[in-house]
Amino acid sequence: MPFPTVVSSPGKVLIAGGYLVLDPAYSGLVVSTSSRFYTVIQPAAISGNIRVRSPQFNAATWDYSVSFDPTLVQDSPQNASKNKFVQLALQDTIFLAVEVKGVQAVKDALGQGLDIAIVGDNDFYSQRAQLTSLGLPRTLKSLASIQPFCPQGVTLSNVHKTGLGSSAALITSLVSALLLHFGVIPPAALSDEQNEGRNLAHNLAQFIHCLAQGKVGSGFDVSAAVFGSHIYTRFDPSVLQDLMKDTHPTSIFPVVSHTNKAWNYQIGAFQLPPMTRIMLADVDAGSDTPSLVGKVLAWRKEKKEEAEELWKTIDHLNQSLASTLLLLSSLHAKDPESYGKAVRWISSLQAVQWTADPSVVEDIPAVSVFYEAHKITQSIRANMRKMGVEAGVPIEPEEQTRLLDACVSQAGVIGGGVPGAGGYDAVWLLVCEPSETQHDPLPREKIEYVWSNYKELSVSPLLAVESMAKGARMENIDEIKGLRDAIAL
Ligand SMILES: Nc1ncnc2c1ncn2[C@@H]1O[C@H](COP(=O)(O)OP(=O)(O)O)[C@@H](O)[C@H]1O
Ligand SMILES: C[C@@](O)(CCOP(=O)(O)OP(=O)(O)O)CC(=O)O
């Protein structure tokens, strides 16, 4: 591969399917974000070594020595801290490369040593402090004006994350860039949608992410980082059983290979409808996802029947949300003009008013489909609240209900909710984004106003929209604004 090798991977928002997606009988609706992690591989003059740098953070340089027979990637004793995610990504990707390409090919590709820089778009980390220090209001415009890949002024362990899934995006971009660099997958693997190379990158990234986290989760965050937005059905964790043992396996390839039928995840086609936009906000109050998950699963075990009924109801709604949003895309494809009319119509009205005029409903079919999507998102919220109440955990706590109600009642807002496991820390909304409108302000601007003036909770927007590029991709460094400067030595 010519230098520099650059691969990016998107962040994620699970808009439906929290908790359910842990069970292979159900699925989740995951939207990948335009906000991405970037891995840049360049040659370095540190023979036999790999230096990894995260220039957005203080004290974030890690040196590794690589040795062969057996393949080992070890922390330099001089490293000020450990980065388990990075070390495991290097160890197991290089191990796999040796297995597939042989020791000599890997030595050649390592050359005189590698410099690997990793940066994440600003959205992955809270920009509140940055905005305050610049005296800027919490708006999309302010966020767009901040330096790309802005230094955070803290160590990685002290950063305030926004929930886009930094570790999954990081692992996926790092693993894919290394696979490309060592020639294990061809560049086309990261331009075509689904293919052998992309599937291999997925399987390896899932394995490494599980190892680094010390558990096998549902994996929707890694699969979004690899494949982009989709309807995700998880894999059976037994596929990783042999690789997750304490002693390092003698071989990884047979397990992570695309030919291994034990990988039974499913990736269903999904994207948000045209002329809409997802809006995300970070709410300044954290929740502890693992403890929420533990309690919900304990309740499900204890109250089997009640839980199964609720799971089925929510699943039915989640599937309907996916099919209704996909139907909107197909209505757009069939008749873009009529679809555009629908978006302009509903952009100036609250959802409860969208279908009030029977002649509009008849003339512009997309209007009632948008209304259906609105009703489904509201029902999903109601049922997730029920799950929270029954399990005794704050999935959509009252403070978030009030915030979401204030947003969903604005003109042109289709729906919203608490992403993933829920809690206090984030909200998502789907709003209309008409290309031209007589009605000022746009739904997006109304929401920005609600958020910036909200008193009960401190709400800060993220810049992300949906990523239309399907997952991990190879980049040209000069096409990514600010990337060259951010990684400069
Ligand atoms: N910019 C970065 N550079 C290097 N490692 C990173 C970076 N961002 C995240 N990580 C790794 O990911 C870990 C965070 O993982 P985790 O707490 O699971 O976060 P998340 O929920 O965002 O995935 C960090 O401890 C670090 O090892
Ligand atoms: C409960 C879940 O289904 C969803 C959690 O989704 P989040 O997006 O809240 O996850 P984190 O990035 O780990 O904070 C657990 C899972 O699927 O892993």
Report on this structure.
The chain contains 16 helices and 13 strands. It is α+β, with helices and mostly antiparallel strands. The chain folds into 2 domains: 5-270 and 469-487, Ribosomal Protein S5, domain 2 (2-Layer Sandwich), CATH 3.30.230; 276-461, Alpha-Beta Plaits, CATH 3.30.70. The strands form 2 sheets. Strands 1, 2, 3, 4, 5, 6, 7, 8 and 13 form a 9-stranded mixed β-sheet that branches. The two termini are 21 Å apart. The structure holds adenosine-5'-diphosphate and ligand DP6. Ligand DP6 is lined by residues 14, 18-19, 21-22, 163, 165, 217-218, 220-221, 289, 293, 419-421. This is Phosphomevalonate kinase. Residues 161-228 form the GHMP kinase N-terminal domain.
Q: In brief, what are we looking at here?
A:
The chain contains 16 helices and 13 strands.
What's the SSE blueprint?
Blueprint: E1 5-16, E2 28-43, E3 49-53, E4 61-67, E5 72-75, H1 84-101, H2 103-110, E6 114-120, H3 128-134, H4 140-145, H5 166-181, H6 196-213, H7 220-227, E7 230-233, H8 253-256, E8 266-269, E9 276-283, H9 289-302, H10 304-334, H11 336-347, H12 358-363, H13 366-391, H14 398-408, E10 413-417, E11 426-432, H15 443-453, E12 459-461, E13 473-474, H16 483-487
Residues 14, 18-19, 21-22, 163, 165, 217-218, 220-221, 289, 293, 419-421 line the site of ligand DP6.
Domain GHMP kinase C-terminal: 379-431
Domain GHMP kinase N-terminal: 161-228
GO molecular function: ATP binding; phosphomevalonate kinase activity
